[in-house]
Design a protein that fits this description.
The protein has helices at residues 15-26, 32-39, 43-55, 88-97, 122-135, 159-170, and strands spanning 4-5, 13-14, 75-83, 101-106, 113-119, 138-145. It is an alpha+beta fold. The chain folds into 2 domains: 4-62, Winged helix-like DNA-binding domain superfamily/Winged helix DNA-binding domain (Arc Repressor Mutant, subunit A, Orthogonal Bundle); 68-145, Alpha-Beta Plaits (2-Layer Sandwich), CATH 3.30.70. The strands form 2 sheets. A 4-stranded antiparallel sheet has the order 4-5-3-6, covered by helices on one side. Strand 4 (101-106) and strand 5 (113-119) form a beta hairpin. The radius of gyration is 21 Å and the shape is elongated.
């Protein structure tokens, strides 16, 4: 019987599924033949798994990771924002549609949002934060500047981690 990881909310994902997903996280453009060579899983099975991943929205999209600094966007910052209750939803809508917002999360502990912004310089950061403070009655903004990537998109990107996960779940 295939081992799997899951809980009541999520379907169990088999070790083979995680293996395929891990190799795709390393290179989403791999051909089925390359995946077969890496995993030993037959091409027809891989084809079926990829179809199932797409159908069940396990694979959200295929994307490219950019070095923003090399294309003129030197500042990456995570902003933690607390808005007035009457403007929080409007602020969320603004942030969702703003071109410089790379990632947006709803968070807890007295704050409303964590926002990753990508901007050209510090002046743009100041303009951005001043705009949201004035227009959306933002009560608090804390900026955390990304100085250097230490690890990026690492979860499920190394086949060794799958073995570690299954050891933890199987009690070995």
């Amino acid at each position: 019987m295939a081992r799997g990881i899951g809980n009541k909310k999520n379907k169990t994902v088999s070790e083979a599924d995680l293996q395929v997903l891990t190799f795709l996280r390393g290179d989403g453009r791999q051909k089925l033949a390359e995946l077969y060579r890496s995993t030993g899983i037959p091409i027809s099975t891989l084809f079926d798994k990829l179809g199932m991943f797409k159908k069940n929205n396990i694979i959200d999209k295929y994307t490219v990771l950019l070095d923003f600094e090399k294309i003129g966007f030197a500042i990456r910052a995570n902003l933690v924002i607390r808005a007035a209750p009457d403007t929080s939803e409007k602020l969320g809508s603004f942030l969702r549609t703003h071109g410089n917002v790379n990632n947006l999360w709803k968070i807890n502990h007295g704050y409303d949002y964590m926002v990753e912004v990508i901007l050209r310089n510090m002046n743009e950061v100041e303009e951005f934060t001043e705009k949201i403070q004035k227009e959306y009655n933002v009560m608090s903004v804390q900026a955390f500047y990304i100085v250097r990537d230490m690890k990026r998109e690492g979860f499920l990107s190394d086949p060794v981690t799958i073995e570690q996960m299954f050891k933890k779940t199987s009690g070995e």
